[in-house]
Specification:
The protein is an alpha/beta fold. It has helices spanning 2-31, 74-84, 87-102, 125-135, 158-170, 186-192, 202-207, 212-228, 240-248, 265-270, 272-278; strands at 40-49, 55-66, 70-72, 110-115, 143-148, 174-180, 197-200, 232-234, 253-254. The longest helix is centred in the first third of the chain and has 30 residues, at 2-31. The mean pLDDT is 93. It binds ligand C2E and magnesium ion (MG) (3 copies). One magnesium ion is lined by residues 178-179, 199, 235. This is EAL domain-containing protein.
Length: 279
């Protein structure tokens, strides 16, 4: 009996796996032309000064509305765009859209873009991004590029990645280490490259009130940032208690649903937070 149940379970997982593979294959195929069909859009999430809570800028986040399957999460489709190579054109489309939006914002407002590690295979990535900024009349000082730690871990490509990041920095753009603390070599990366900001991963922030080790880690990152002279930001801030602690520990920047959810550009421009940034 146990044996037949085992076979049952095996068959169930086998089917589920096939289903998952089919879905991935379909999504990967449907990504082709999704921009042209108008299925892709951007939302913008505010980044705020922890002390004044004023908005300092917005992070652009990509959204895909599939005509039959509805909203697909970036965690699901970005990896598919990466493995099919579509991330290169998609990434530049995101940058173009976000920079066009940011042109209408106040002069000091930052626009943050997420870069996929895969995009660094393109030798002209930095030049392309800087050319886009110039075309939109955006000073590079207003640009932040968020890279996850895996981006700096492309093995033999490591020097190319660091070179591209450096080229962006040389022109005044800032490089942010995103999801800090979750990578394989956080400290090694910090030693080998000068980041302009560290963004502590949401998982630490959401756990820190009831998980002492997470709290210790967040607090240590604040101290680390301070002694390196690198500003730290916390993402995923959802409660007043979290905000209070982060402020007490000296975090200069915060981001999360408490401060504002990612929203379409039209809603951003109508929001009180946006008005507060201008005023
Ligand atoms: P990320 O860059 O770390 O972005 C933060 C994610 O956390 C976003 O999810 C955001 O909507 C979500 N978030 C923000 N505040 C809160 C909060 O208070 N609570 C909770 N529960 N979640 C919060 P999203 O938009 O689903 O994006 C997921 C990831 O997909 C991003 O993580 C980023 O790595 C990637 N991604 C999104 N857009 C792009 C893009 O244009 N290019 C690339 N390469 N990656 C992107
Ligand atoms: Mg990010
Ligand atoms: Mg992040
Ligand atoms: Mg993330």
């Amino acid at each position: 009996r146990a044996k037949s149940e085992g076979r049952h379970t095996a068959r169930f997982f086998d089917e589920a796996l096939k289903e998952e593979t089919r879905l991935r294959w379909r999504l990967s195929r449907d990504l082709e032309g999704a921009v042209e069909r108008g299925e892709m859009s951007l939302v913008y999430q505010p980044m705020a000064d922890a002390r004044t809570l004023r908005v300092i800028g917005y992070e652009a986040l990509l959204r895909w509305r599939h005509p039959e399957l509805g909203d697909i999460r970036p965690d699901q489709f970005i990896p598919l765009a990466e493995s099919s190579g579509r991330i290169d054109s998609l990434g530049l489309w995101v940058a173009d859209q976000a920079m066009a939006a940011a042109r209408g914002w106040p002069d000091h407002a930052i626009v943050a873009l997420n870069l996929s590690p895969v995009q660094f295979r393109q030798a002209d990535l930095a030049a392309d991004l800087l050319a886009l900024a110039e075309r939109h009349g955006l000073a590079p000082e207003r640009l932040e590029f968020e890279v996850t730690e895996s981006a700096t871990l492309l093995g033999h490509r490591r020097d190319d990645v660091l070179g591209a990041l450096r080229a962006l920095q040389d022109r005044g753009a800032r490089i942010v280490m995103d999801d800090f603390g979750t990578g394989y070599s956080s400290l090694g990366n910090l030693r080998d490259f000068r980041f302009d900001k560290l963004k502590v991963d949401r998982s630490f922030v959401s756990a820190m009130l009831d998980h002492a080790p997470s709290a210790s880690i967040v607090r240590s990152i604040a101290a680390l940032g301070e002694s390196l002279g690198v500003p730290v930001a916390a993402e995923g801030v959802e409660t007043e208690e979290q905000l209070a602690l982060l402020r007490r520990w000296g975090f200069p920047q915060v981001q999360g649903y408490l401060l504002g959810r990612p929203e379409r550009l039209e809603s951003v421009l109508r929001s009180a937070a946006y008005a507060g940034m201008i005023g």
